[in-house]
Design a protein that fits this description.
The chain is built from two helices and 14 strands. The chain is mainly beta and 337 residues long. A twelve-stranded antiparallel barrel has the order 1-2-3-4-5-6-7-8-9-12-13-14. The chain has a two-stranded antiparallel ribbon with strand order 10-11.
Length: 337
């Protein structure tokens, strides 16, 4: 019996030592992978989860304001990479969701953020110690729930978008310059992008919706695509990430409505732009202040100055024109792994 207990204790100690050693080498490989392209067989993962909440109550407040309000938002950025000698497979997921509740509208939730953005790349390093990879890329973009134009009268009777509508899919072969997990620049001269939209949305406007023609549900594009990412821990408590996407559609042309009236002028020079920046300032252990700014330019999504009933749109940022801008400042829980 004593021998059995001794053997069990020895086995447990060996397993613990092996686990600690495995964890040590895993952490070492993860740290090295931030700035170097590994030439080994390993799985490396990382991620950040941010949860924020803001709440306010007013009573007999002379200056006025929303009597009671609550804002809840969540943001997840995760990455998993498989190294296998000269090949690399990387998958990134960016997901965000936010809701605003106010007493003035009976606490009916209104969205402040909603995004699902998945990118997966598989590459083969062109030389033993180089930074260039022959890479295939897949990207999918959509959202979690229905979206509404809250400026419109009776806005809750119709939606402007929903899950998988629109759904943007991009397939692209190309060349990637990669320096560890911090810097990645991918370029493809022949990227296929498809847009799927429920017919409900393309029938609401003579010009269609999200670049899809009136009454149709699908759009095909072929063009040049560049996507660049930069991720960096500026200090132990400050992390920053940035992403730039550019897409030029070779097949772009002028768009006419069902009555053959010119709706939108278009050509390959109208480059779609996505510029996404996020900085998190962490304090204590699990709390942070987060600032995110996203700018999008898409010629297929024009700036509409009037609502469906013909009234002028009440928006303080009209000077930004067709640019889609989203800025979020939040305080909350931060977990990094």
């Amino acid at each position: 019996m004593k021998k059995l207990l001794l053997l069990s204790a020895f086995a447990a100690g060996a397993l613990q030592m092996q686990a600690q050693q495995g964890s040590y080498y895993e952490d070492l490989a993860k740290k090295s992978a931030e700035t170097k392209n590994l030439d080994t067989v390993a799985w490396i993962h990382s991620g950040v989860l941010n949860l924020g909440i803001n709440q306010g109550i007013l009573h007999n407040w002379a200056a006025g304001g929303e009597l009671a309000s609550l804002t809840v938002n969540g943001l997840f950025n995760g990455s998993i990479t498989r190294y296998n000698m000269r090949t690399i497979w990387t998958t990134n997921l960016d997901a965000a969701y936010g809701l605003f509740y106010a007493y003035s509208n009976s606490f009916v939730p209104r969205k402040t953020d909603d995004r699902i953005d998945l990118t997966s790349k598989y590459g083969y390093r062109l030389s033993d110690s180089g930074d260039f990879y022959l890479t295939g890329l897949f990207n999918a973009k959509t959202q979690f729930t229905k979206g509404y134009n809250y400026d419109a009268p009776e806005w809750d009777t119709f939606s402007t978008s929903k899950f998988l509508s629109p759904l943007y899919l991009t397939f692209a072969p190309g060349i990637e310059y990669r320096k560890g997990s911090q810097i990645s620049v991918f370029f493809s001269p022949a990227a296929v992008r498809t847009t799927f939209v429920d017919k409900y949305y393309t029938l609401r406007d003579d010009a269609g919706a999200y670049g899809v023609e009136y009454g149709k549900t699908f759009r095909f594009e072929l063009g040049a695509y560049l996507t660049a990412r930069y991720v960096k821990d500026l200090t132990k408590s400050i992390s920053f990430r940035s992403r730039l996407d550019l897409y030029s559609n070779y097949l772009a042309k002028d768009v006419y409505d069902k009555n053959n009236i010119l709706v939108k002028k278009d050509n390959p020079g109208n480059i779609d732009i996505l510029f996404d920046n996020f900085i998190a300032i962490k304090f204590y252990k699990f709390f942070s202040v987060n600032l995110g700014v996203v700018a999008i330019y898409d010629n297929d999504v024009p700036y509409v100055k009037t609502l469906a009933d013909g009234t002028a749109k009440d928006e303080p940022y009209e000077g930004l024109g067709w640019w889609q801008i989203k800025q979020v400042l939040s305080f909350g829980f931060n977990y990094k792994f």
